[in-house]
Amino acid sequence: DTIARGLAVLRRLDFSIPKDPSPVVVIQTMTQTSSIALKYLGLNNFQGVIHPKQKNILKIIDSVATSCYLSASPCLPLVACAAVIYSLQQGTVHCEESASIFA
Question: Residue 53, exposed/middle/buried by CB under 10 A (0-12, 13-18, 19+)?
């Protein structure tokens, strides 16, 4: 299964996304992501140079998110939240690999 493999890869990259999330977990994650995003809104911590590793991680997340979307997986909101948090924490919100995350 593509999504299971994608989630396994994300787990190896230290993203904690359950295989079968409950609605409560999804709501909690979305609330946490919103709080983290508010924290970063006023900061100017965005990098001028994005490292290839960061771009590759964003591409992996995007691929997993696309698979989740196409199969209507309940993991999609969690993958999207992980992508937003990663991008904010790494200062990569302005790179093209982050574009689909914030669309």
Answer: exposed
